[in-house]
Fold each of these.
Amino acid sequence: MLLAEVAATSDAVSATRSRLAKRAAIADLLRRATASDAAAADRAATTEIVVAYIAGALRQRRTGLGWAALRDLPPPATDATLTVRDVDAAFAEIASLEGPGSAQARSTAATALFGAATEREQVFLRGLVAGELRQGALDSVVVDAVGEAAGVPADAVRRAVMMRGATGPVASAVLLADDPAATLATFTLQVGRPVRPMLAQSAPDIATAFEKLGSGDPAERCVDVKLDGIRIQVHRLGDEVRVVTRSLDDITERVPEIVEVVRSLPSDRLVLDGEALAVGPDGVPRPFQETAARSATREAAPEVELVAQLRLSPFFFDVLHAGGRDLIDAPLRERLAVLDEVAASHTVRRLLTADPDAAAEFFAGALREGQEGVVVKSLDAPYAAGRRGAGWIKVKPRQTLDLVVLAVERGSGRRQGWLSNIHLGARDPEGGFVMLGKTFKGMTDEMLEWQTARFTELATDDDGWVVTVRPEQVVEIAFDGLQRSTRYPGGLALRFARVLRYRDDKSAAEADTIEAVQALSGL
Ligand SMILES: Nc1ncnc2c1ncn2[C@@H]1O[C@H](COP(=O)(O)OP(=O)(O)OP(=O)(O)O)[C@@H](O)[C@H]1O
């Protein structure tokens, strides 16, 4: 398949706001990707690349191509001859270049690739490399489009994607299958293969959380302490243990102490979900904030740095598989019974109650202990892999949002020479970001130093005062409320926004949406 076809579809998708029209355009592209008479293996590889590129994902790899390399492009070719396989092979080669002289070699390879692209294709490739095509909502439209093209329900595709942890392999399998429905059914939970974790919705207080789980219903709920650590999913097959983070990065090598605990558990086939934290001498888990500040100058993601420094303990709050039994679809009540059997002394503290006052008391106790809050859970709900399921509602005392840095202003006075005041945006599910305010508060000197380097790397424009950056860095912001504002395009502004920490465990596509902000504002 020609790159030109993917670029044209990408244009068609961004030209319309209609989800149905986007879906139809992508479904058509996928049908064409699988219809050629090439060998099945070629069609499968082509389909996977098309799925990734149309969603703006340049696989999981970094190309090592900086913004500067993309500024002075060679003259474009006149004919569209590049195939998606050519392009992917070129990116693979560029990414593999290392060591002395590699910058020059990368630049030469990039010039060759861009020189073979038409003007339109150059724009598309540059957007792909710069991460500008990445739109959070597109992942889910792609899943819908796979369903449409293969003639199977989108929900079944979504579930398979969660189980497989990736869209491309599911798309190629189902689109090339003689029996798509049967093929989809083969994507089940497999011990050893990470699934996307369940996420929580939020509520401002316990009473609202209880209501959200069914108003006027006197049924018991599970109230878990919300620990502020590193999300971990643990897979065990005999002595083989694998530990992955929220974004499914494998950290097994870095957490031998967790591997050891998991090996000591009574079941030898397990998939557990939980949080990893350092424990104080008093046996109480220490929140992330306390230790995160120390790693503000890190090169790598903060959690990676942290796991290298601290001895972590696992605190499990869910079980997806135990001893040959899949539990994803079982109600939480049943999963907890199993969890207590298989991970007894390593579970998160919880209270089962139908009484919101008792839950509020438990919440206050968790805060006194220094924890982040609670997660109120329906005891009847299944594990909603990869979704912000309706069965989990988090409650925190402090309002926070995960926003994306859009630009940063040069500091003055004591902050001369640093990039200081950051512009904050919420994600627009239809694409792009909506600015909600700025802040220069809450940053330590280490953070200023780190962010100056980081935003220099992400810079796309600089008017001498404001440096515009690629919208990739997620930052956790605390604030005192939201007010109406005519200054910003969303009509809302944050009051007293301050930085809590930079989050490298979340991509911009996972940042909070403008809709979530509107819901929190109550305006
Ligand atoms: N008992 C618990 N049950 C579920 N999640 C928990 C629990 N304790 C801590 N957590 C953490 O809370 C998160 C749930 O909130 P959410 O899905 O919104 O993720 P998040 O955006 O990372 O949230 P936050 O920034 O509030 O931690 C989980 O990802 C997990 O890391």
Note: The radius of gyration is 24 Å.
Amino acid sequence: MRRFFSYYTPYKMLFFVDFFCAVLVGLLELAFPLIVNLFIDELLPSGNWQWILFASAGLLLVYAFNTFMQFIVTYWGHMLGTNIERDIRNDLYAHIQRLSHSFFDNTKTGKLLTRLTNDLMNVGEMAHHGPEDLFIAVMTLLGAFGVMLSIHAELAVISFIIVPFILIIAIYFNKKMTIAFRELFSRVSDFNHMIEDKIGGIRLVQAYANEDREMDNFRKLNEAFRATKLKAYKIMALNTSSTYMLMRLVTVFILIAGAYYTMQGELTFGEFAAFILISNILFKPLEKINAVIELYPNGIAGFKHFTEILREVPDVQEKENAVPLTDVRGHIEYDNVTFGYEAKKVLNNISLTIHPGETIAFVGPSGAGKTTLAALLPRFYDVSGGGIRIDGTDIRDYTLPTLRENIGTVQQDVFLFSGTLRDNVAYGKPDATDEEVYDAIEKAQLKSLVDGYPRGLDTVVGERGVKLSGGQKQRISIARMFLKNPPILILDEATSALDTATELEIQKALNLLSKGRTTLVIAHRLATIKNANRIMVVTNDGIVESGTHEELLNIDNGKYRALHDAQYRFS
Ligand SMILES: Nc1ncnc2c1ncn2[C@@H]1O[C@H](COP(=O)(O)OP(=O)(O)OP(=O)(O)O)[C@@H](O)[C@H]1O
């Protein structure tokens, strides 16, 4: 709760103005019953029209003032809520961005989507309505009770006898609603995850003609969602209707007791009428309390989810005294490196040295750990044993952004953002000029593609680059790398999606790019890495062979030779 209230701190002024106006709005509602009292007991018997008009004008003024206050409460109150919602969302997104790859390996994107949208909207509503409505309600109840007391103490107490019961019922249902909404939240999250997954994979669904099966799954989830929602609404309906009944009991109590006291001469007709009207005003704060009680579980569940993610500590952390990685020579050492994904051990005591400017290729069977070996260098994951050094310093001693700025990775799965060609290429250097972007595009053999589009660099690539071919996407990621210009390169199957002719051209470009840079190449097609300074064969037993293409071919019964023979057997 302390964390929640800390979000109000920057908006103290807004909060107090909103609160003040809200209380005025609540209390000024009491003007009407009081004026009615005055009308019936004083003004009507006197027959003085001047006073009647004067009192009516006074009431009109109160209403005009209250209208203005209403505007402030509704607009500024929601401004407070939306400001807090925005701040929490910014904090959450900033934190999510800092989390490590392992978190994303194990977290559904749909869940994060729910956290960032639905959950926080509920938190925003609670932030605004929660304290404000409760406070208005309490103040209006106290104000009403005070006015009632000043008119007739006994009747005031009778009128309020039921109020505690209404509050007890509200608290009882609040507990039930909290549980129901927690379940509902989890369903929304499942739902978002499914939509994200299945709509993202719609091409696969259609290719396998699996629409009916997916529709069945969707129906089941949708039905579970409906059932959970209905459960929550049932509790809500029970709460609203029982509160309604109790509130109407208050009116009946006042009617009976008020009639009695009026007949006894303890109450004037005007006071009796005022009591009845105040009992109607009482409903408003009680309904507000009820509304907060309905809102609260949503908001609290949303905020709890937010704090859960905030408590996630990134596996990969920057040391306090980390230094920036600058003037990189590109000397890399893997020293007895051990690593595993959770329980699964992938790398065992790997040691290797890569000299500045060298191109080292990793080949070997699928799943042996080549990609993992490279992913440890930019610290997407941290080693569980041993260490990796760049230019003699452990990579954990460098600041994370400078380490990653100096390492460029062209991956097997190219991710393009929905946007233009320019946006995607310039992602490597957001402040790049058009000349620089064109230069990178030319080097990545993309010029003819860009020139072929009427809108050139402003061509929209579609979600995840769906309007481009695999080879084109790969060349865009290579163009990005030309712009980023890092001293250390990781090319993970960088040319795998290219036809042989384009591959040769790109290979030339990549050779140019890797000149003077330390380059780690992961490749299955041996033709692309023949000229590497050294080739390492990685298997489940670690690095089993190392040498130049020729040296490795000459090893009798060698693994590299076997891979080579298998690839060239039919050529
Ligand atoms: N994020 C992950 N979480 C858990 N296990 C993983 C993860 N990424 C890879 N693995 C596992 O680690 C092992 C090594 O995977 P890696 O991708 O490094 O192999 P690779 O040699 O690059 O394979 P390929 O040549 O097919 O790309 C595999 O068994 C794989 O299933």
Note: The chain has a mean pLDDT of 87.
Amino acid sequence: MVAPPDNDVLWARGLHHAHGQSPALTGISLGVREGEILAVTGPRGCGKTTLLKCLSGQLVPDSGEVWFNSHPVHTLSATSRERLRLDRFGWIGTEPRLVPELTARENAALPLLVRGDGRRAAMQAATEWLERLDVADCAKRRPAALDRAQQQRVAVARALTTTPQVLFADEPTAPLHRADAAQVLRTIVNAARSHALSVVLATQEAEATTLADRTIALLDGRRAGAAQAEGPAETEGREECSLSV
Ligand SMILES: Nc1ncnc2c1ncn2[C@@H]1O[C@H](COP(=O)(O)OP(=O)(O)OP(=O)(O)O)[C@@H](O)[C@H]1O
């Protein structure tokens, strides 16, 4: 094994993975720098979700290496990968997947409670994130009483309450209407900017690639080449929005 470059928070080399007989990744290498928002684009089935799951330790690649902060992830035990995900990574999926019996605040506090933080501190952190994401008025409501965009913002809060170092977002705005999608996307970007988080964002939205620092395109499980120039996009990507994160 060769250690990754020092300035990459996350680094992967030669990732291959198949789901049964179905190849999903066929040799992907990439690095993500501290505070960088990296968009991963490509058509349905090109391997975006599988890539994010391998990078975040949810899946162990069939071959290849994943490193986080110069530590190998692909050789960790399942328990150590779980702990890593809980402490250092946040995950936002396409569906909010909130627990229906819990309030928005309890949902947002869940990762902290699962890892054993005190209830008072967990609820306080959840409240602060719901405020930053402009859904504080939803705190005491259950998911069924929230609209889709509010639910997804609560899911964003849940991913951020642990103050992760890397946030993985797998097509987080796909099921939303355009205006809601733009708002949720800017919420994620602004939270990342204000807290210097690295973000790996799987997306097919044009606006997402505009807000990202860098974009890579996948095709049939491998990189199709840089999809976007890095100079101007970086400037545009750092534009602020009105949300209070
Ligand atoms: N659990 C699974 N079992 C079998 N095949 C799978 C499984 N998950 C993904 N695949 C296959 O692996 C390939 C890559 O899928 P993946 O979900 O990673 O791509 P994607 O770019 O995220 O697609 P989408 O945009 O549809 O989510 C596809 O051919 C898909 O059908």
Note: The chain has eight helices and ten strands.
Amino acid sequence: MKVSVLGATGYAGAELLRILYNHPEAEVVHITSESHTGEKIADLYPHLRGLYDMTLESMKEIEAIGDDSDFVFIGLPHGHAMEVGRAMAGKPVRIIDLGADYRFADTSVYEAWYHVPHTHPEAERVYGLAELYREEIRNAKIIGNAGCFTTASILALAPLAKQHLVDVNTIIVDAKSGVSGAGRSAKQANHFPELYDNFRAYNVAGHRHTPEIEQAITDLSGEKSIINFTPHLVPMSRGILATCYARLRDGIASELVDAAYEKLYGKEHFIRLLGRGAYPSTKDVRGSNFCDIAWHIDPRTNRVIVLSAIDNLVKGAAGQAVQNFNIACGFDETAGLDYVPMYP
Ligand SMILES: NC(=O)C1=CN([C@@H]2O[C@H](COP(=O)(O)OP(=O)(O)OC[C@H]3O[C@@H](n4cnc5c(N)ncnc54)[C@H](OP(=O)(O)O)[C@@H]3O)[C@@H](O)[C@H]2O)C=CC1
Ligand SMILES: CC(=O)N[C@@H](CCC(=O)OP(=O)(O)O)C(=O)O
């Protein structure tokens, strides 16, 4: 399969290149950047030296890129992918957008939270969270890859929502991310003195991943779900740990919760169930496409507390995109993704 990466100079784009290098069925044919057009990717990312001798092109060549590619991966800030999608509408090329443009079934929700008009609302698109929407992904033309915090949170909560074990209006997600989640461009909050030896929350009661989690929990449970989501920034480069709370419905035994996780994920390669009472950690999944999940039950409050860990750049972005690509192409789902996590 000929694939192209738009926004190859971003963290998500560069991570795609790292993963695609080892993919047995993918050949990268075009990579783009607007601010580094004409430069070699390995000059911007020395870890790719000797592995990619490719020159960055401009998106002005989008027509030719679309004609040459079977799949286009988009690692651009939100708002750009829908323009690419429109430009590709008449071509056989398929799209996996790592941003948010194609994640929402209802584009008015996207517009309300992202504050830009949606310019491609008629697009046939599917939500790219592989373990939960595999059948839809198989034949999709446009896949809206799930977000990073959202992947960790939705995978943690899905068994409880699907089996109606919790009140879906009592969900609280408290999640922590490494700084690569904010992208490569310089921002004051990510400046070393601001970040180092520091820990803080941001976008409380207003983060854009809130409606994405609500959309999935509503879909999986069949009940309208309104949640609280609080992200935090931690001074590490990669990794997300999500701590998710929900009130159990009356009379739900712990074994029913255990069984729900086993039923949904028991056969999933990329979801590792650590079990009741265990503690996932970001280092155990670093550099891999795994999502590690454990759950605890507090009988005093009748709450279930689910912990999940992912690498935001892999299962939260590029790895999940390649997993979706594998599903969409009928390849083994682990193709190019069979990494042992980098420990320690
Ligand atoms: N980082 C993460 O953990 C995750 C990121 N994502 C999503 O992936 C996408 C990329 O994120 P990330 O790699 O972190 O971001 P970066 O800021 O690291 O990279 C952004 C990329 O977009 C390009 N770009 C920026 N502005 C424009 C523009 N106006 N027109 C065209 N290209 C532009 C940049 O290219 P250049 O400046 O060279 O022209 C660069 O390649 C985003 O939608 C993000 O939400 C999703 C999940 C996780
Ligand atoms: C640490 C950090 O800043 N994380 C980003 C989320 C990562 C991202 O790029 O958003 P998507 O997953 O929706 O694409 C944020 O909070 O906006």
Note: The chain has a mean pLDDT of 98.
